[in-house]
Amino acid sequence: EQAPPSSNYAFYAAKRQWWWFTGATSSISSKVSDPKPVDCESLTLADGSTIPITGAGHVDVGFRISNVLQVPGANTNLLSIGRACDDGNIDSASFDRNGYRLGERQDGVPRRLHRAVA
């Protein structure tokens, strides 16, 4: 059986590093492709403050991340692992002391494994 292809990514977009969070409900970036209007006007941060949302679109970081909120005031990019799984951008995520692995599937068959090492 042939192993699925794998890719290693540093995950940089718009010259900013992406941070991966398992507890975030939305992915955010200051710049997205093909932005569309959204119902929500602001995003509440962990400290209780809010910042404006100007739309939602997608970002390509070696694979497509959809439903990314465009937040011009964001000083970093954030990927919600749960949202990416729910949206079908990734199928699985695992973390250990050596790094992380993000798995994609297509029609139930492993398609690609993205990984980074510490």
Plain-language structure description:
This protein is mainly beta and 118 residues long. It has one domain: Cathepsin D, subunit A, domain 1 (Beta Barrel), CATH 2.40.70. Helices cover 5% and strands 53% of the residues. It contains one helix and 13 strands. The protein has a four-stranded mixed beta sheet with strand order 1-13-12-11, with no helix packed on it. Strands 4-9-8-5 form a four-stranded mixed beta sheet. It has a three-stranded mixed beta sheet with strand order 2-3-10. Strand 6 and strand 7 form a beta hairpin.
Jot down its keywords.
four-stranded mixed sheet, 118 residues, 1 helix, single chain, globular, mainly beta, PolX-like_BBD, Cathepsin D, subunit A, domain 1, disordered N terminus
> Cα distance, first to last residue?
29 Å
CATH architecture: Beta Barrel
Domain module tally = 1
Helicity range of the residues? under 10%
Enumerate the spans where pLDDT stays under 50 for 5 or more consecutive residues: 1-15
**CATH class category label:** Mainly Beta
Could you state the oligomeric state of the chains shown? single chain
The CATH topology is given as Cathepsin D, subunit A, domain 1
Total of DSSP H or I helical runs spanning 4+ residues: 1
If you compute it from the alpha carbons, what radius of gyration comes out, rounded to the nearest whole angstrom?
A: 15 Å
Shape: globular
**How does the helix and strand content classify structurally?**
mainly beta
Strand fraction band?
over 45%
Biggest β-sheet strands, sense, barrel? 4 strands, mixed
Helix and strand element order: EEEEEEEEEEHEEE
